Amino acid sequence: MAIKAHIMDEEGIRRCLRRIAHEILERNRGVENLGLVGIRTRGVPLAERLARNIEEIEGKPVLAGTLDITLYRDDLTMVAPQPLVRKTEIPFDVTDRRLVLVDDVLYTGRTVRAALDALMDLGRPQSIQLAVLVDRGHRELPIRADYVGKNVPTSHREDVQVFLLEVDGEDKVLITEQV
Amino acid sequence: MSWTRKHLLGLQDLSRDEIQLILDTAEPCKEIFTRPIKKLPTLRGRVMVNLFYEPSTRTRTSFELAGKWMSVDVINISTNLSSVAKGESLKDTAKTIEALGADFVVIRHYAAGSAKLLAETVQVSVINAGDGAHEHPTQALLDLFTIRDKKGSIEGLHVAIVGDILHSRVARSNIWGLTKMGAKVTVIGPPTLIPQEIEQMGAEVSYDLDEVIPHVDVINMLRIQKERQVAGLFPSLREYSVLYGLNRRRLDQARDDVLVIHPGPTNLGVEITSEVAEDPRASIDEQVTNGVAVRMAVLYLLSGGKDIP
Amino acid sequence: MSLLIKGGRVIDPAGGIDAPADILIEGGQIIGVGTDLPAAKEELPAQGLVVVPGFIDLHVHLREPGYEYKETIASGTRAAARGGFTSVVCMPNTNPPVDNKAVVEFILAEGARNGAVRVYPIGAITKGRRGEELTEMADLAAAGVVAFSDDGNTIMNAVVMRRALEYGKMLDLPLSVHCEDVNLAGQGLMNEGRTSTLLGLPGQTRAAENVIIARDVELARLTGGRVHFAHVSTKEGVELVRRAKKLGLRVSAEATPHHLTLTDELVATYDPNTKVSPPLRTREDVEALRAGLLDGTIDCVATDHAPHSRDDKEVEYSHAAWGMVGLETAWPVIYTHLVLTGCLSLIQAIDLFTRKPAELFNLPGGRIAAGQPADLVLFDPKKNQRVTEELLVGKSKNSPFIGQELQGWPVYTIVGGQARWVDEIGR
Predict the structure, then answer these.
(1) Do residues C149 and C180 both lie within one domain?
(2) Structural domain contains residue B97
(3) Which residues in chain B have their CB less than 8 angstroms from residue A80's CB?
(4) Both C308 and C416 in a single domain?
(5) Is there a contact between A82 and B40 if contact means CB atoms under 8 Å apart?
(6) Which of A3, A155, B240, C294 could serve as a FRET partner for C215 with CA atoms 20 to 30 Å apart?
(7) Which ipTM did the prediction report?
């Protein structure tokens, strides 16, 4: 793996999340009936940061939860051994709520597809929106993000790697390439 | 830690890390009980055969539910329904199951070693749901899960297993699992129901429940089969109950935070009184829930397993 | 027709011979043993081979009549010849059992007609082997049985056993007893102990064997009858026989190659080929049996060759038939595990297969001397091969030794001057 580009640093990520927080509030007209759902692994700290941003801006807390989509993946027959299953922790009823799914990178759209199925099994949300830090293109399913930190055109050979303080000890986004 | 096994035949074979992984995977699986839609698409299109040579409502239902909640198609074969009763051998039946395209076979059999024989015969993932007095790994895993859930950790606990140790696959699997997870195990029962050299498995032996009960964190009460009395292994159910039954008086001798478990079905009034079974310290009903979660975890992990290492 | 076996190392425990020598055979008999014998029509070069009396097995199951799908007299004796045996004594648990003269005559006739080696039947002690009424023992003896046994079953009623020993005295034939108290043995499938506990298989206590050995020692004392303890497997059993012999009682004992080399830990594979009665015991028992061989408490090695078809064996352990084949592998097993390891001298080991069993059941052969029947086996002390199903020439392949590398294979078996086994690969 070779590093091709350093596309975001700590400050860049902070600004993106601040902007997305504003956009979410604007579009949903406040935090009423709103719930953020971070997709494991890196969607979780992102959702928490968005929640903090929203609370700072709005002065009201917003609900946030964690979604593990492993049991909804469509590639389980192709991977061995099985990936680790972890807990889904959504401490609110999703039914009739406006949900915002949060993930680090939007790529093929398959993770989001799995997440949508998982959320539907938990109840009947009023709506589901999608927020991602990076959209790198190459969708394989008809899925688009409502809130995008940064659009980054990439090739298939490239990989977008998001590092977050809570998980990786630092904040940055890299484009790497197989050599 | 990743899972590489194709079969689950017993806890004797498993490492501490593997047991840990099953319990960790069962944790999120248990969450499904709180959902309105109890169905995961995970194993869509997979087929599981429950092959039961011994009657069992609990274990079979638990596996069936675990399979269904993971979207597995479940077929039940039991001795009185199929050609097994007509003298068809286990090997023949196994071949048929394989030809039907099954991905998992859950086998319950009265003969020790049958699960292993099946695993050697077919290409399908074999899950031992109890073979003779040998092993019943998923029961022990759900016991471990329940203990960990209630006590936070298994390491360092003292667990008493009380009853017919000689004929109990649950006891054997529990001894393997508990000792691997760092617990101390004492088996308790009349000498006629304690197998020879059980100490070699890492368990201590006592014939006196009253002496041990104040010191333990967990009491696992085994079901006593009435046939054992007929076979002359103890004089009467009355005397068995007096010596080894768990009643209010005995429970009062135990620690306040003692956990009472029982693989079920209980012989109320024999090995355990209904008063004790309903006590908040007993987790007998929750074990049923945990059983489904553990079996979901096992199905999930085995579906990615390649072969016997 | 004359044959000269030339250049081998001749060992005959009965005659105290261990020297390079030639053996001249004519008319089915040994004519001479020495170094300057006259030439014969045919010559068998035996350089590098050991020439010994044909082996004698006091305990085999040939399954005919009744269970021909497991083994026949023809196939079982072929296995015997392959293993270097020139005489086998077959047990009466056939169907019908050998409890009447007609079956004795059938076995003798079939043995003479189609047997590769000499066949000596054992008669049942009780009618139908049910342990209740004595068979017509004198009639059976007259027809040609060499001993009596209800093998597989123990006569649980001590009175019946007492009467059999008393009545048998007038015939002076031994009673070969299978020692297993059926109540103590219960549903046990393997030796009761650590391994049975681990495996969850019902254990069979060693006491089931010991109490019957103790009982029959007492009955031998009471009656003066001859008791031969079949397949002794426990250290206590060895001790009981040792004490009985010290008292001068007329008792003898055999041990099998499997009990002399395998332990119950092998059952951990759940391989039904490890299921045998009496069950495989512990390392301590194996050691005690070997000590018994050395001090003469155990008189001889016998195989308890018990063939079972695949269908009888490839089932759940609890359903599998009891027993294992042993004729083909007996000598290489003992040679590899007891002789090459220094536990027994070569001449001691040969003695256990030849002179001793011949004397116990009063059978011809078992020695190399002029005038003796020309029953000989030539084995190759260097020949090493892995036991495979193909190597077993009987009908059934239920051997726990499959996969083992063994040495000292018989390459040439001669019965009454006729070659009955020639190892094509070895020659």
Answers:
(1) yes
(2) yes
(3) 304-306
(4) no
(5) no
(6) C294
(7) 0.90
User: By residue range, what is the domain housing residue C26?
Assistant: 2-51+373-422
User: Is B309 a member of any domain?
Assistant: no
A121 to B40: CB separation less than 8 angstroms, yes or no: yes
C340 found inside a domain: yes
Residue C159 and residue C30 in one domain:
no
**pLDDT in single tens digits along all 427 residues of chain C:** 799 999 999 999 999 999 999 999 999 999 999 998 998 999 999 999 999 999 999 999 999 999 999 999 999 999 999 999 999 999 999 999 999 999 999 999 999 999 999 999 999 999 999 999 999 999 999 999 999 999 999 999 999 999 999 999 999 999 999 999 999 999 999 999 999 999 999 999 999 999 999 999 999 999 999 999 999 999 999 999 999 999 999 999 999 999 999 999 999 999 999 999 999 999 999 999 999 999 999 999 999 999 999 999 988 899 999 999 999 999 999 999 999 999 999 999 999 999 999 999 999 999 999 999 999 999 999 999 999 999 999 999 999 999 999 999 999 999 999 999 998 754 4
With contact defined as 3+ CB pairs under 8 Å, the chains touching C are: B
Cross-strand bridge partners of residue C226? none
Residue C298 within a domain: yes
Query: What is the rounded distance in angstroms from the CA atom of residue C108 to the CA atom of residue C119?
Result: 7
CATH number at B36 reads: 3.40.50.1370
Q: Which CATH architecture has domain A11-155?
A: 3-Layer(aba) Sandwich (3.40)
Chains C and B touch (3+ CB pairs under 8 A): yes
Cβ–Cβ gap B301/A123 under 8 Å: no
Burial tier of A96 (Cβ tally within 10 Å: 0-12, 13-18, 19+): exposed
Instruction: List phi, psi (to 5°) of C52.
Output: -135, 165
What end-to-end distance do the CA atoms of chain C give, in Å? 22
Q: Taking CB atoms and an 8 Å limit, are A80 and B31 in contact across chains? A: no
Chain A contact present for B4, CB below 8 A: yes
Count CB pairs under 8 A between chains A and B.
Answer: 55
- What are A74's two structure tokens? 């469509």
Buried residues in B218-247 as b, exposed as e (16+ CB within 10 A): bbbbbbbeeebbeeebbeebeebbeebbbe
- Same domain for B293 and B281: no
- Name the residue range of residue B152's domain: 137-287
Q: Do A and C touch (≥3 CB pairs < 8 Å)?
A: no
For residue B110, tell me if it sits in a domain: yes
**Structural domain tally of chain C?**
2
CA dist list (Å): A28 to A54, A94, A99, B6, B275 = 12, 16, 10, 49, 55
In a domain, C311, yes or no: yes
